Amino acid sequence: MKVLGLAMGRRNGNSEILLKHALKACEDEGLEVALVRLHDYKIQPCTGCELCTKCERSGEPMRCMYPWDSDDMKQLADMIEAADGLICAAPAYHLMPPGIGMVMLNRNHCCIDSPRHRGEFPFVRRVCASIGVGGSDWTSLFMPILNFIGTEMLGSRMHLVDQMKLHRTPAVGMVLCNQEALDRATQLGKNVAYELKKTEGPVEYHGEEGMCPICHNSIVVIRNGRMSCATCDYEGDPIIENGRITGIKWDGDIEATRWSMHGHEHHDAEQFTAVKFEKGKGYVFTEEQKELMTKGREEWGKYLEPVMPKR
Ligand SMILES: Cc1cc2nc3c(=O)[nH]c(=O)nc-3n(C[C@H](O)[C@H](O)[C@H](O)COP(=O)(O)O)c2cc1C
Q: What distance in angstroms lies between residue 10's CA and the mean position of ligand 1's atoms?
């Protein structure tokens, strides 16, 4: 079994050192490990051309507007595809993971289209874990997005087994002075190995509990007067004690959250309430809509020439 570590921070930086501790623990448990620094890879950003979506919907082999050999994304995606475990390690940049992680995630759709990724054939246990480091405690959006990158890249739908977040670690390498954090990263690696080596039972989560019992994070949005987990779409109401919110009484349908089959069908259905899609044909518009769109795009296309970079 292979565990791949994705490092998104500085070379030998704090997140990478923690990642290496986690990978070493996996190796000590007898697993094969490898490390990838995202900054060593050329990944062109998704332009939203929808070529891969069209291929997916028409059943054609996946293609991307970027030829596969024009950058390293396919190589990267294939390595992730071959891994059973994925550990993403990143610094917080502006409350979130660094852009390079999102650039990779955005491109992933065209690169991976396998039954293994879709979890379709003999169930394979694939798990992921996240390690996050912030210079301060400005990390509110960080872990949910980092976890999302890992679980989506792996296609394992919230098979997150552990996550750790370290605050107040700004200088490169200063994590080496924090034995507690290094031990926690080792434990994270052991948890990944334990879940991969387990031969039966569901994948379990070993990290700190957040408010949401599904993604274990605590980012909620208020919708229709109720609270809803921002990543899972799971609903509930606040528990108020002495005028303070002390928790959430979740009562949404767990089968209808974003990560369920129903959630995926809902996502597709939502798109197709706006526009019909026919296999082999693509989106189907009325003549009136086609005219509005063709004329409009032509006219708006003439308005305001974008300012080009001076080179
Ligand atoms: C562009 C940039 C933005 C950053 N934004 C944040 C932030 O929003 N919150 C935070 O806690 N730290 C922030 N930091 C600090 C890094 O998270 C911190 O230095 C971390 O240790 C870097 O990890 P690394 O050594 O693994 O690269 C930022 C650093 C950079 C370079």
A: 10
Pocket test for ligand 1, best of 6, 19, 35, 136 (most atoms within 8 A of CB): 136
Residue 213 lies in a domain: no
pLDDT tens digits along 49-82:
989 888 887 888 889 999 999 999 999 999 998 9
Atom of ligand 1 nearest to the CA of 16: 26
157 with 32, same domain: the answer is: yes
Do the Cβ atoms of 129 and 191 come closer than 8 Å?
A: yes
Residues 48 and 143 in one domain: yes
Look at ligand 1, atom 31, and give the residue with the nearest C-alpha: 93
Q: What is the pLDDT of residues 13-44, one digit of tens each?
A: 999 999 999 999 999 999 999 999 999 999 99
Q: Which residues contact 137 (CB under 8 A, 6 or more apart)?
A: 167, 168
Residue 210: CB within 6 Å of ligand 1?
no
Of 32-41, 208-217, 243-252, the range with the highest mean pLDDT is 32-41
Q: Looking at ligand 1, which atom is closest to the CA of residue 13? A: 25
Range of the domain at 296: 260-302
- Helix 14-28 crosses helix 179-197 at what angle (to 10 degrees)? 40
Q: Is 9 in the pocket of ligand 1 (CB under 6 A)?
A: yes
Which numbered atom of ligand 1 lies nearest the CA of 7? 26
Question: How far apart are the C-alpha atoms of 97 and 146, rounded to whole Å?
Answer: 6
Q: 310 lies in a domain?
A: no
Residues 71 and 202 in one domain: yes
Who contacts 309 (Cβ-Cβ below 8 Å, separation ≥6)? none
Q: How many domains does the chain have?
A: 3
Residue 309 lies in a domain: no
The CATH number assigned to the domain holding 167 equals 3.40.50.360
